[in-house]
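Example record

The entry below shows one chain as it appears in the dataset: sequence first, then structure tokens.
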Amino acid sequence: MLSACSKASDNKEIQSQNNEVIENQSLENKQLSENDLKIIDKYNQVFTLMSEGEYDQFKQELERLLPEIVQIKNKKEREKNLMTSYLQLEMFEEAYELNQQRIIENPSLESFQCLLMKQLKRSKRDIEKCNQNVANHILMELSNSSDLNEEERATMKGIYYLYMVEAGHENYLVKFKAYIKIISNESVQTQLENMSEMMSLDQPFTP
């Protein structure tokens, strides 16, 4: 059986998600209470420890701060800071539960949920089912969205093939490799090649 992800690529994508969360640090102060701002300031101070290379102390301080982060009233800031904290502390079960709630408002996060399931060593069947759902959603968007430009459509088609491989359809790996060869847009080709490398399609599946 071919794989969707190896442990190394799992960590890379987890870090990618983590970086994406961290990058959105600009705060709309008028929407935050004074107490929220105090907690977020503590949170940002803790993250300076990581940038200074004090990773053990960083993890200890971040773990101590978690009960306060949970008390942030602004939903967007609370969930963003909690997810970053859970990923940094490798609290994947908590990250999974939080992401499950976020999927209701943002279905695109289901692909990240599949990755968290892999980290949690959920069953092969459940992981493949998750990836199949993602593939189905991509196919539906490809079929129903008339406003996609040529580059977006080409990219989504390649991603669809990749998620079908992750869902256990080995024949889609052959389709993906053939598709890559005929893409004329170098940007799309590079993006898909990088994504396939991250997913480690040539690594054995580890249940």
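Notes for this example: The radius of gyration is 19 Å. The mean pLDDT is 86.
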